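Feature request, filed as a ticket because there's no other form

It would be nice if the structure record came with a short human-readable summary line next to the tokens. Right now we just get the raw output. Example of a typical job, pasted below so the devs can see what we mean:
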Amino acid sequence: MSRKRVGLSPRHQKILRFLEEFISEKGYPPSIREICDHTQISSTSLVNYYLNQLEEMGFIERGSNVSRGINLLKSLTGNFSHSLKDAANSLNDLISIPLVGNIVAGEPMPVPNSDFSYYDPDSGIEIARTLLPKLDAADQLYALRVHGDSMIDAMVNDGDIVVMKKVNQARNGEMVAIWLNDKEETTLKYFYLEHGKVRLQPANPTMKPIIIDNPKTVEVQGKVVLVIRQVSQK
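Raw output as currently delivered:
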């Protein structure tokens, strides 16, 4: 059980200040990991400890089992300017997508089967629903981090994240994640079925297409619905 305190410690104040700044800028609360990173508190458990105390003192309200479920009730200087309704609306507009592994935008590269099944909930990404195309309730989304530069002319660079809609078939010209089951290799390319063969076309004029003689060895894992560009740190 959290120990009640009289007044706010410097760490309480640092967390509250970050919550207010983050929500004012983004319109939704930060994740526990983001609080760790920006307040230089090394442990997520310790952040939870301080958040529980802030909830006891009436500064925040926490939603159980809700991603980013922190409502700021009052700031260091008084009542917070954003209403709880506004915070709830911002949360409802977010969709959480699992980041399940890597995909090669280059020559197909051997990847363990677990690369497509691994899911660490803390590794997911959250984006606004308005950025995605219209989806059906049954549609499944996942994200992959891109390695390689074969799709640079499609504005997909090394290190970017592609959001995929899980499908097992593709139309000609769609950008898809492909699993080559005879080689246990994966790649990200434009898909074309032509004359009984599959052409996997890069979007890089310096690279040649990959021609697959036996379409049965090509498994479509998903098609790209959104590209999230990563800003260079150089």
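Something like this underneath would help us a lot:
Residues 10-92 form a domain with the Arc Repressor Mutant, subunit A fold (CATH 1.10.10.10).
The mean pLDDT is 79.
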